[in-house]
Amino acid sequence: xxxxxxxGGGLVQPGESLRLSCTAFGFPLSGYVINWYxxxxxxxxxxxxxxxxxxxxMQYTDSVKGRFxxxxxxxxxxxxxxxxxxxxxxxxxxxRPPYWGPGTQVTVSS
Length: 110
Known about the structure:
Layout: E1 4-7, E2 10-12, E3 18-24, E4 34-39, E5 46-51, E6 58-60, E7 68-73, E8 76-81, E9 90-96, E10 99-100, E11 104-108
Parallel strand pairs: 2-11
Antiparallel strand pairs: 1-3, 3-8, 4-5, 4-9, 5-6, 7-8, 9-10, 9-11
């Protein structure tokens, strides 16, 4: 059983927003570095954002800086995605090394 689950994906138009959530069942996220990755069709999985164990340090890949925000609360981690672009289309994965969720599809299309 996969301990991590991503929620919140969907189909949106360019410029719109989505908020992804990562949660765990009987499995701690608090106190661990959590990462978001994404994989677009035909491409390798790429790192998107990370948040430190206590939530004081956030890092982003250049292509999402200023548009995406990673945050955490209790045993959940969020990825707020604003001003979405078609190139953000991908399956988004939550990662607490070495564990992965099954991913959630984000599609940005007009």
